[in-house]
C-alpha cells in the first residue's frame, strides 16, 4: 500500500540544495510547521560522480550528512537507471544539474521512468519542464501520479502553485520577470562601474555564478525558465530554442551607465505571452523606470508579474533567498504530492 | 443533495463589488477560466436599504443588474435574518459594510447563522475575521463547512490562500504591509505639497476614500486588517482594539516633506508578529528607504511581506486594482469552497 504519511524519497543528484533539504529534514524540531508533512523517509540518494547510498528501511538524515561530509561523497556506486529500477520508492526528486546542450534528456528519462512505474515525480531540474512538459504531464495524468516543479523558477517561492491554486479561474495574459541572479548581479556591478569580467568573477566568488557562466550570460538559463513558465502556466509547448535571447555579452558598460544617468535601470527581463495564436517567449535587456518594482530587484532576488484577466496584476518577489528557500520548493512539492494521494 | 457543481449563493449586501461580481457571472464567455467554477446560481440578494430579490430557481444575473440599475435597488424587502432562515442556499456571501463601532456584530451573526445551518460562508466583511475568527472557525470545523475571507485583505490578490496553500510547512515569523489605500494616497499627495484636507477630498473624488474618511485616517481600517492577518495566519485572537494605531491626523506636511527631502518616504505600515508569547499588532508611520519596494507602493496598490522560517522573505504586491480584483476574491473563495466539498 502506498503511504501518504510516509513518502519514501529517491533523490537523484545531491548538490547544495539537496544537502540543505536533508539538513532541514534532520532537524524537525527547528521547523514546527513540518509536522504535518508526515514521516518523510529517504530510501536512496544517487549521484553521478559522488557515489550513492541506499537503505530500503530509510536512511538516517544526520548520518547521511556526516558520511557525505567526511568522505566528500558516498561509498556505493549505482547508476541512476538501475536505481530507478531497483529501489522501492514513492517519490522521485530529480535534482541533477541542468543539461542545456543535451536538452535535458537524462532528467527527462528519469522522470519518465518514475511516472511509468507509478511513482510521483518532483523535478528541480528544469529540463523536463522546458523540453518535455506536455508529454510528461500527460503520462502523469494517465498514471494518476503527480508531477510538480516548484523550485525550477524563483526557487521555493511559489510561482506555479500561486497560479494553479490561488489564482484559479483567471486566464494569465502575460508573465514577466527578473529570474536570473547572475545577470542581475553582474548588471548591478557594471552599473557601479565594474567591467563585465570583474563583475562575473565577483558573482563566482559569491557562488551566484557557476564556474562556466556562459549559460547565464547568454540568456540560456533565463530562456529555459521562460519555457517552464509558458509550458506550465500558459499551456504552451515552447522549447528554449524558440525563446528570443539577448546576450549580456553584447552590452557595454557605457550603455548601462548611460541608462543609470537617465534615471532608469537596465535589467534582463523574461517575458511570455500569447500573440496571434502563438506563444512569444523573450529574454531581453529592458530599461526599467525607478518607479517600477523591477528596478529594485538586486543581487539574487527575483520578481514575477502576472497579468490576469480578472484579478489584475499580481507581483511576487523573492527577497535575498538562501539555500533554504530553494530547499523549501521541494518541501512545497512534497506537500502537494501528499495532497494528491 | 448539496451540489458541488451548482452552488446556490445568497448575497447579503450589494455594493460596487457585489455588482461587479454579478457582472462577471453574467458574462461567462468573457472569462474562459471560469468554466470549471461550475454553474454558480444566485438565489438571493438582500440589502439593508436597497431592497431584496429572491428566486429559489436562480436569478438571471443580467436581469438582476438591469433591475437594480433601473430602480436603484430591488423592489422586495426582506430582513437579513429572515433571508438566512427562509432561503435555501449553499453558500453565504457576506458583503455588508464593515461596522467598527459595532465590532462587526451583525456580520458575525450572519456568518454564524450560515455555518450553524450547515452552509459554507464567504465573508468579504472584515468584522467576523477581526473580532470572531477563532469561534467561527471552530464552528465551521464542527459543521464540516468552509469559512473563507480572501477579499478582506488586499482585495482578490491571494494572501490567505498564499500562506495556507502555497507556503505550507513554513512558520510565519512576521507580516508587514501597506494595506490601506486612503492613507497611502493621501500621503502621496501630501508629499507633493497638498494639504491633508485637499488630499482627502481628492481621494473621495476618486472613490478611494469613503464619505467619512475617519476610519481610514485614524488607522482603524488598517488595524482591522492587522487583526485579520494575525488571526488567520498567525493563529492569534487579536481584536483591532489591541492593535497599536498611529493616526494620520497627527502628521504634518512638514514631516512628510522632510522625509522626502532626506530620500525616504513616510508610509503607513501594518505589522503583526509574535513576541514574548503575545501577538503584537501595529499600524505605524514608518520612514521607508527608496530601495525598499514598500516605497514604490502608491495610490491604491498594496503590498505584503511575509517572513517565513524556511522559505525566507516572500513579498506579494497588488498593482492598481479595480473592482474586478476585489470581485475575484469572491470567485477565489468559491473555488476554495468547491474544493472543500
TL;DR of this structure?
Chain A has 341 residues and is an alpha/beta fold.
| Total strand segments of chain A | 12
Helix content of chain A: 25-40%
End-to-end distance of chain A: 12 Å
CATH topology of the largest domain in chain A: Rossmann fold
Q: What count of domains describes the coordinates of chain A?
A: 2
State the shape of chain A. globular
Task: Give the secondary structure arrangement, pairings included.
The structure is a homodimer of 341-residue chains.
Chain A: E1 8-12, H1 16-26, E2 41-46, E3 52-59, H2 61-71, H3 80-86, E4 91-94, H4 105-116, E5 120-123, H5 127-131, H6 133-143, E6 147-148, H7 160-166, E7 172-178, H8 181-191, H9 196-205, H10 214-217, H11 220-233, E8 244-245, H12 253-261, E9 264-275, E10 278-289, E11 302-308, E12 313-319, H13 323-340
Parallel strand pairs in A: 1-2, 1-4, 4-5, 5-6, 8-10
Antiparallel strand pairs in A: 2-3, 7-9, 7-11, 9-10, 11-12
Describe this structure in words.
- The structure is a homodimer of 341-residue chains.
- The longest helix of chain A is centred in the last third of the chain and has 18 residues, at 323-340.
- A six-stranded mixed β-sheet of chain A has the order 3-2-1-4-5-6, sandwiched between helices. In chain A, strands 8-10-9-7-11-12 form a six-stranded mixed β-sheet.
- Chain A is globular and about 60 Å long.
- Chain A folds into two domains: 8-156 and 323-340, Rossmann fold (3-Layer(aba) Sandwich); 166-318, 2-Layer Sandwich (Dihydrodipicolinate Reductase, domain 2), CATH 3.30.360.
- Chain A is built from 13 helices and twelve strands.
- The first copy, chain A, has helices at residues 16-26, 61-71, 80-86, 105-116, 127-131, 133-143, 160-166, 181-191, 196-205, 214-217, 220-233, 253-261, 323-340; strands spanning 8-12, 41-46, 52-59, 91-94, 120-123, 147-148, 172-178, 244-245, 264-275, 278-289, 302-308, 313-319.
- Chain A is α/β, with parallel strands linked by helices and 341 residues long.
- At the A-B interface, α7, β12 and α13 of A face α7, β12 and α13 of B.
Amino acid at each position: 500500500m502506498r503511504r501518504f504519511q510516509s513518502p519514501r524519497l529517491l533523490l537523484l543528484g545531491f548538490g547544495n540544495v539537496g544537502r540543505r533539504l536533508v539538513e532541514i529534514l534532520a532537524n524537525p524540531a527547528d521547523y514546527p510547521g513540518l509536522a504535518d508533512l508526515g514521516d518523510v523517509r529517504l530510501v536512496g540518494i544517487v549521484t553521478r560522480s559522488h557515489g550513492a547510498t541506499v537503505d530500503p528501511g530509510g536512511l538516517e538524515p544526520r548520518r547521511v550528512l556526516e558520511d557525505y561530509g567526511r568522505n566528500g561523497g558516498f561509498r556505493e556506486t549505482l547508476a541512476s537507471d538501475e536505481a530507478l529500477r531497483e529501489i522501492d520508492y514513492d517519490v522521485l526528486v530529480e535534482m541533477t544539474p541542468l543539461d542545456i546542450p543535451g536538452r535535458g534528456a537524462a532528467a527527462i528519462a528519469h522522470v519518465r521512468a518514475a511516472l511509468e512505474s507509478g511513482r510521483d515525480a518532483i523535478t528541480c531540474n528544469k529540463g523536463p519542464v522546458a523540453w518535455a512538459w506536455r508529454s510528461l504531464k500527460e503520462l502523469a495524468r494517465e498514471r494518476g501520479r503527480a508531477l510538480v516543479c516548484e523550485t525550477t523558477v524563483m526557487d521555493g517561492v511559489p510561482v506555479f502553485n500561486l497560479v494553479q491554486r490561488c489564482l484559479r479561474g483567471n486566464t494569465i495574459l502575460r508573465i514577466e520577470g527578473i529570474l536570473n541572479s547572475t545577470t542581475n548581479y553582474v548588471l548591478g556591478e557594471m552599473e557601479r562601474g565594474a567591467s563585465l569580467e570583474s563583475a562575473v568573477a565577483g558573482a563566482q566568488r559569491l557562488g551566484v555564478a557557476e564556474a562556466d557562466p556562459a549559460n547565464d550570460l547568454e540568456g540560456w538559463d533565463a530562456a529555459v525558465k521562460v519555457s517552464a513558465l509558458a509550458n506550465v502556466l500558459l499551456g504552451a509547448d515552447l522549447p528554449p530554442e524558440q525563446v528570443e535571447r539577448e546576450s549580456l555579452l553584447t552590452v557595454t558598460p557605457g550603455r548601462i551607465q548611460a541608462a543609470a544617468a537617465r534615471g532608469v535601470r537596465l535589467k534582463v527581463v523574461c517575458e511570455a505571452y500569447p500573440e496571434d495564436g502563438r506563444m512569444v517567449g523573450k529574454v531581453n535587456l529592458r530599461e526599467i523606470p525607478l518607479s517600477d518594482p523591477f528596478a529594485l530587484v538586486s543581487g539574487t532576488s527575483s520578481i514575477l508579474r502576472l497579468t490576469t484577466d480578472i484579478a489584475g496584476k499580481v507581483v511576487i518577489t523573492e527577497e535575498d533567498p538562501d539555500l533554504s528557500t530553494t530547499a523549501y520548493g521541494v518541501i512545497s512539492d512534497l506537500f502537494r504530492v501528499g495532497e494528491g494521494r
